[in-house]
Structure formats: structure tokens, C-alpha cells
Amino acid sequence: MKHLYRIAFALALYAVAVFAFKAATKPHASGSNEGATATSVALPVRPSAETEAELARQIQERSRQLEIQAVHLERMKEAKAQMMTRRREVQSASYAAWTQVLAVNHDHYLRLHDQAQKTPGGQVPCTICDGLSYMKCVTCRDHDGKCITCNGTGRLASDAYCPSCLGKGKCYVCTGSGKMFCPFCDDGMIDVRRPPPSNFPPLY
Ligand SMILES: [Zn+2]
Ligand SMILES: [Zn+2]
Ligand SMILES: [Zn+2]
């Protein structure tokens, strides 16, 4: 696991930093108040037991955080490797609902497209969605915003991150809001330069 190398490297860096810190903060002379002359010899002073215990605790804590980070990165890597495969499954599960949205609004869309063609700018406001380019998500159940692959938990068996939502538990189509982008418009505008709606639910 390459993350172990990172942990070892970070710990080595940390040890060097601790050593440098000790060296920099070491008192220069044992008795500076009386009789200190240019010839006095500086004696090394060991850090107190409390300081050493604190440093050991900090190193242990840092090491624990690095291990957690390494596990997170490893799980994320595995989830990303399967992301598109699992999202295609979600896509086919949403296909019927998506097709229905396209079919129900087809004539309405053609009318708006026609009107847009007659305007100088080639645009008219979209009245299919809420005007802000949002409509009910076709992917999550009852538009609840939960990822359907993991049922909103973000995890699969054995604590692996869900590949569809990458561990977030949110529907990737609506990012958990229950509202997806309107397939017909851009930012609430029907634009003649825009291609017609996709035949498939999004994979992003
Ligand atoms: Zn729209
Ligand atoms: Zn959704
Ligand atoms: Zn999920």
C-alpha cells in the first residue's frame, strides 16, 4: 500500500522537525544570572518527562490521523474505479422515468423551441421547469435525494464507499436536493443553439 510510504515519510519529517525544535529551544547556558562569562560552557539540558510525553502523544495522534487518511484514500480509489459501472446501473433504473419526462413535455418543448427561433437572441424562458432549470429528480425514490445504490448510507457491505455517490449517500443526479436539472433548458432558457435533450439520464 503506497500510503504506508507516505505515513513513514511524514513521520520521519515530523521526527526531524521535533529534533530541530528541541535543538532550537535548548537553553544556551546553565546559569546566566551570575558569573556568566563568554567562556562558560553550555550544558545540554534534557527536556522534561512531561515535554517528552507530550511530543510522543502528538506523534501518535499524527500517525493515527495519517492512517485514517490513508484508509479514506484507498476506499475512494476503489469506489472511483467502479463509479461508472454502478452509475450505468442507476441510469438504466431511471431510464423509464426519464423517457416519460421527455415524452410528456415533448410538444411543449417543440412549441418553446419554435418561439425561440423567432426571437433575435434565439432564446425564450423555459416554462417546462420551475424557470430556474430545476425539476423533480427522476433517479432517487420519491425525490428524497438519497442514492439508490446504497439507500443513502454511503456505504456498501464491508464499509466500502458506495461507488455511485462516492460515499456521500446522496443521489448523484440531484446531489441530494431531490431536484435535477431540466433536460430541456440552460439556466431556465430554451436556446436554439442548445442540442435537444439527451435520450438518457445523466451520468455526472
Ligand atoms: Zn427548463
Ligand atoms: Zn435525485
Ligand atoms: Zn450511494
What's the arrangement of secondary structure elements?
Layout: H1 2-25, H2 49-104, H3 106-118, E1 123-125, E2 134-136, E3 179-181, E4 189-191
Helix pairs in contact: 1-2
Note down, in words, how this protein is organized.
There is one protein chain. This protein is mainly alpha-helical. 46% of the residues lie in helices and 6% in strands. The protein is built from 3 helices and 4 strands, in the order αααββββ. A two-stranded antiparallel ribbon has the order 1-4. Strands 2-3 form a two-stranded antiparallel sheet. The longest helix is centred in the middle third of the chain and has 56 residues, at 49-104. It is elongated. It starts with a helix and ends in a 13-residue tail after the last strand. Bound molecules: zinc ion (3 copies). One zinc ion binds at residues 147, 149-150, 154, 162, 164-165, 169.
Summary?
The protein has three helices and four strands; from the N terminus they run αααββββ. It has helices at 2-25, 49-104, 106-118; strands at residues 123-125, 134-136, 179-181, 189-191.
Main traits of this protein?
single chain, 204 residues, mainly alpha, two-stranded antiparallel sheet, 3 helices, 4 strands, binds zinc ion
| Strand proportion | 5-15%
Query: Structural class, judged by helices and strands?
Result: mainly alpha
The radius of gyration is 31 Å
Mean pLDDT: 85
Continuous helix count: 3
Query: What's the helix-strand series?
Result: HHHEEEE
Number of strands: 4
Helix content estimate: 40-55%
Q: Describe the largest sheet.
A: 2 strands, antiparallel
| Uncertain parts | 7-13, 16-21, 27-38
Which molecules are bound besides the chains?
zinc ion
Shape: elongated
Strand order of the largest sheet: 1-4
N-to-C span = 29 Å
